[in-house]
Amino acid sequence: MATLEIIGAPRSNFVRTACIACIEKGVPYTLTPARPHSPEVDVIHPFGKIPVMRHGGVTLCETKAICAYIDLAFDGPPLMPRDAVGAARTEQWISLVNTSIDPVFARQYLLAYFFSGQPDGAPDRARIEAALPKMREMFALLDRELGNRVDLAGDAFTLADAFLLPLIHYMRVMPESAEMFSASPSVAAWFDRVVARPSGKETEPPPMPGRG
Ligand SMILES: N[C@@H](CCC(=O)N[C@@H](CS)C(=O)NCC(=O)O)C(=O)O
Predict the structure, then answer these.
(1) Which helix (H) or strand (E) is 166 found in, with range?
(2) Fewer CB in a 10 Å sphere around the end CB: N or C, the chain?
């Protein structure tokens, strides 16, 4: 069978999640750099988003679906718990990250810095300021939750951690979110643990222009 191919930009948090899933599962993969809405992406994702995946005749889009395929099609440690409660808790946290946390941390806050749409490319301060109260609430939630457990959904690494890690990676380095990160000791301790795994180290993205 052909090598599994993840297609997307290495700086994308969702692309990194798919790569982490491959490494945690022990699945060899290649990462083919591609931007959203490029032809190789559009042919697989109906809305041109990254990552997309090819494995032999199987093509898939949407990170959670790609990760489910990686988890179920290969031998290796489970990325989702196989018991009902553990699986549901993991799904719950993936959903919270994807539908509430990513839209604020990445789509609102990070994009206001890096893809502000301002003519001079300057950060969109209004968008940033509007995100900050929501970000504070989310950091407080994560800090409470991660204070009770080793990993986001339980006491072992799961896909929930793979979805959150790439977002926190960027939160550590941007000015306002770095302050929130420093004031969240349980988030910081969790981040140090997950980023030290081979999947965290091997998928570290290139720094954003002007940032670590
Ligand atoms: N629901 C998608 C979201 C993926 C996503 O938003 N990827 C971003 C890059 S991090 C993207 O392709 N953005 C371009 C766009 O939304 O048009 C998934 O889980 O894979």
Answers:
(1) helix 159-171
(2) N
